[in-house]
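[Automated response] Your request has been received and processed.

Submitted sequence:
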Amino acid sequence: MARYFEKISFSQFEKDFKDYENIKDLYDDIKLPIAKSVLAAGYDFISILDIIIKPGEVVKIPTGIKVCLNDDEFLGIYVRSSFGVKYNVRMCNQVGIIDGDYYNNDGNEGHIWICLQNEGDKEFIIRKGDGFAQGIFQKFLLSDNDTRLNNKRIGGFGSTTEGRE
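Generated structure:
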């Protein structure tokens, strides 16, 4: 059984962050998600950049993190609880689902990106070092008459709708 977070490789990081300066420093600053209390279900994702989300804007936030999961698990990604209530900031898809085959697939290492939308009327600022989302490991069941395809995932964000082997 394997369940853990790790940094994406520096070569993947360079591809994903080609427009940023001080890329080595950014990479070195990546912190693995952590649970902030004894009974916390969620592992906080920490921002490696200062991010400003303008009213009405959607921002795709890179984490520099990938996750290894057991075959019967997924990682649910949720925005921090207070963001919606206090600031009207939400995840674009409400809940992100990271499947086990997203990890180290042929087209992408499994870099987790988190999309937030500011539905408020003020700029929303996430500072480098701030927790902005949380990941929760979850088990899932299959239906008794499940017919699984033998397709192999190739690619990153949104890749299950793309062509496959």
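Summary generated for your ticket: The mean pLDDT is 89. The helical segments are 10-16, 23-28, 81-87.
If you did not submit this request, please reply to this message.
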